[in-house]
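Dear Dr. V.,

Thank you for agreeing to look over these. As mentioned in my earlier message, I'm a first-year student in the group and I'm still getting used to reading structure tokens, so any feedback on how I've presented them would be very welcome. I ran two proteins. I've put each sequence directly above its structure. The first is here:
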Amino acid sequence: MAQAEGCTIDLRQSNSEADLIDWIHEARIDGSGIVINPAAYSHTSVAIMDALIAFEGPVIEVHVSNIHRREDFRHKSYVSLRADGVIAGLGVKGYEFGVIRILEILRS
């Protein structure tokens, strides 16, 4: 899908908040959009939110589970304060939908 649009996707995974922040800053230089599953950092990391605010492209937040059907503390996401869209509860299919939405935003 992204290849048909002339785009490449850089897939990364880390449990390190520092790695995630560094990658977001790298995307400021050579990235067009970010699809991010911040997992538990959604609810705790102002630093990730700040890094995403500094990124000028579209950001889609993805959660495999429906965070609104989980514990109350999971209902607030700092990342959502910056995200252009949030996808939750659609399993791993949410990543594909996130890429589709990034491509739509970039085309418009």
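The second protein is here, in the same arrangement:
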Amino acid sequence: MTCSTKIEILASQILQKLSITGAWRTRFLLHLFGLWPALLGRHNFVNLGRQGDFIEYTYRKHFDKPFDWLAFNLILVKEQASDELIIGVDPSYIPKAGKHTAGVGRFHSGKAGRRKPGIEITGLAAIDMTDKTAYHLEAVQTIDREEGESELAYYARIIEERAEELLKVSKYIVADAFFSRNPFMGRVVAAGFHVITRARKDISLRYYHQPKPGVRKRKWDGKVDLAQLDTAVFSRVDDLETPERCVWQGVVNQKSVKLEVKAVIIQELDNEGQIKEIRTYLSTDTSLTAAEIMRKYAYRFQQEFLFRDGKQFVGLEQGQGRSKEKIHFHTNMALTTVNLAKIAHYLDQPASHRVAFSMSDITTAYRNERLALHIFRKCGIDPHTPKMQAVIKELKVFGARTA
């Protein structure tokens, strides 16, 4: 297939740099990388067996075998991304049932705003702030938690176990307000990272005591009132302010995690100049400016597009596997396909020529081309003639949103 060749060539280049034993395993993976974005219908074993080159049992067997998705995607990031990277951490709920399915429980669904039965994966992503995009690194299912281990402790363990590899990408971990407390922050900082996050509404910050002659020595100098800031500690950030917004920055102590943090406090004002809302952003790297902290945190949302594209277009939520090995393979296969498609069909173009990335159009082109080649083959038509290549080129964009 002409269209899938770009993904297959890219995947082949990465696989050659990994320690994969056996030509058969490599052949299967290359076939799967080409088939996955072209699959019609649901992304499950039944459809793979119907539309792929192997029987259903072969796909089930290979999904049970381990594959180093983190190493594969790290090579992609190293070769394709800029040096301006941060690491995003974000759990994602996946609906799934079955009393024999590994890891089924009740997990928070952001869409529903409550806990629902299913499974959960924690996505690790390298976010490129130059190209304004996110690359999937690895999805880890929430499973096999130790007795008494909290969710935050489990998420911290995921980072700790991969710290050596992740530190090669970036020392900055960016996460939402749920992660702005211990044990996550303390353990991740101890592993060598800096955390950038938004604070919870009940955040407790305290001033460091400024020694004065004749005053008893003490470590803290009172709690930070977010509406009445001490101007000896906090300074205004004029570059980020608007008539409806006051922005302050200062170095204080976060009481709940016992860490020194740079706090960026945004006070939203009403028409009368009164504070109507306060948002606080934190960074354990106190050398960052307020603008740098806000910029890094804003790019966290690029990871959401990975999950969106994975769920809508490449079957992230459609796996039939029940074992944790099959679930791990399926979720990472779906999200890695987004990586490959993005690099092969979007980032390969000069920045000035790029239009908005559309996973929908890429999968449409793959499916159209695969179907056209199948029909030509059944009719005994050579698809490699110039005339047929022109027909295929036209058919590929049939139904595309940007055609």
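From my reading of the second output: The mean pLDDT is 92. The chain has 13 helices and twelve strands. Does that match how you would interpret it?

Kind regards,
E.
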